[in-house]
Structures are given as C-alpha cells and as structure tokens.
Write a structure and sequence with these properties.
single chain, 5 helices
Length: 236
C-alpha cells in the first residue's frame, strides 16, 4: 500500500518547479527522472550515501567532497569511497584493466570527476538562489530516519540557503511511527521495495507523485526514460 500525507504541500497555485533527490541511492534518481521527464543532473544523483552524509555535505557547502588523498577503492573495488564526505561513487570512476577499481584508477580520474561535481555544486547553489519552488526528496530506503532527522535536514537547507522556497518529501518502505511530529514543510510517503529491481516499483512511485502538485513540464524536458548513470559523463 502506498500512502502519502499531503499536509505539507503548498496549494495548487504554487506547484513545484523542480524535484531534487537527496539519496539514498540510484532508485531515487531513476524514479524522479522517469516521473518528471527532467534529466538535468543534480549533485546527489546516482550516489550512494546515508542521511548524515547528505546533512554534512550541504552544511559544508560541498567543500569536503573528493579532496585529493581522501578517495579510495571500497567494497572490494566495486566503488570508490570518499573518506572526506562518506559518499560512495559506483558510477563515476571506471576501472582500467579488469573489473575492479584500483587506487591508480581513482587517482588518474579524480580531477575530472571532481570538476564534474564542483559544477553540480554550483548548479545546486544557483537553483537554491533562484525563484524556483523545489521539492527535495529523501528516500529513506532502510527506514532509518525519524521525524526529528527530517526536521534537521530542513533546517540545514534553510540555513544554507535563506529564502529558498522548498519542501521535503520523506519516502520510506513503511509508515513512520512519529509522522504526527513532522514539522511544517515536510511530507511523507511509502514506496515498497521491488525485489530484484534496483529501479524500484514504478507503480508505487507513480501513486505517490500523483498527489504532488507539479508545474507543467517544459516540452524540451519531457523524456520517457531516465538516463543511465554510466552515460552521464558531464552535467546535463
């Protein structure tokens, strides 16, 4: 069952212009692009990171991401771990010979990957400074957060970008026990896990977003499929 609490939504006269994912992993990026048709890249797209890493990255204005000497192979070479930000990069560093990342692979590609994410950080700042009404979506894929955590996230964004018009959508696998404690500007919904499908359950995500007031899509942004992370070499 999918449930959405719409109490935090603005009215239909103030719909959201942009949806921006805040982790936990690739399911969020895939679904937001599929649903909105907007494939413009955002900083946290296709990354694997826990809630605290999102908070710290925004608080530090992206300053500790991908610093030289802090990125290393992780999970037996399946991804790169940035020790400075605790972000896991599964798609931005390509292995050389063989199928697993080495330190040499990471060091050789670090400047290019860092340049990409610094451009995405600047895009984040520009969006936050604009008049756009933004819906930030955090997918709590393992039901680890509580209402107080989402309040902390909202405070973090509001402090970093005073005056930005935004709301938060907290998506979980099961309903939160403390939903009544959610602060204004935070809504929640549930999307069940799709066994064996990293993209998630399309129908459940569609049901949640059927209740979200979105501004009409621009024609040039309406695409039917989400871009795969390995084809996204530069911010689009």
């Amino acid at each position: 069952m999918t449930h959405l609490n719409p109490a935090a939504w603005s009215d239909a006269n103030d719909p959201y212009d942009v949806c921006v994912g805040l982790g936990y992993h690739c399911e969020t990026t895939y679904q937001l692009r599929r649903i909105t048709g907007n494939e413009s890249a955002h900083f946290f797209d296709w990354l694997d990171l826990d809630f605290d890493a999102v908070i710290e990255t925004i608080t530090e204005d992206f300053a500790h991401v991908l610093r030289p000497g802090r990125v290393e192979p992780f999970s037996d070479g399946l991804c790169a771990l940035d020790r400075g930000s605790d972000i896991r990069f599964f798609h931005d560093f390509a292995p050389g010979e063989g199928r697993l990342l080495t330190q040499d692979d990471i060091d050789r590609q670090l400047d290019g990957v860092r340049a990409k994410f610094m451009a995405l950080a600047e895009r984040w700042r520009a969006l936050a400074a604009s008049s756009a009404h933004v819906l930030y979506v955090h997918h709590d894929a393992f039901d680890e957060c509580a209402a107080r955590d989402l309040a902390r996230l909202r405070h973090t964004i509001a402090t970093a970008h005073p005056g930005q018009r935004f709301s938060l959508l907290w998506l979980r696998r099961t309903p939160p026990a403390d939903a009544a404690d959610l602060a204004p500007g935070i809504a929640w919904g549930t999307v069940a896990e799709a066994a064996g499908r990293w993209e998630g359950d399309d129908a459940q995500w569609d049901e949640v977003f059927s209740a979200v007031p979105m501004a009409p899509r621009r024609t040039d942004a309406a695409r039917s499929a989400a871009t795969h992370p390995m084809t996204e070499e530069t911010p689009a």
